[in-house]
Amino acid sequence: MIVRILGEGQYRLDDAELDLLNALDDDVEAAAQAGDADWLKRALERLLDEVRTQGTLLDDDLLLDSDVILPDAEASVEQVQDWIGEDSSFEGLMP
Length: 95
Hints:
95 residues, PspA-associated domain-containing protein, PspA-assoc_dom
């Protein structure tokens, strides 16, 4: 799986990481829905740190389609709410 962090780059992760990433994404989604900026920042940082830790940073010259695109840790509550959308069937940032 290829994950892009906006403004940073792309990481290759094993599909085995998807369960943990989805759990971290659930926390991001809950924080965004609650409108809690501090909680959202902490949740986004945990999600992004997991991608950085478990993933392999890809060379900038390598252009691959991203399976997932994540905002940076400085994204506002409103930006993440827009990113996630208001459709209750949407399941957060991760597929």
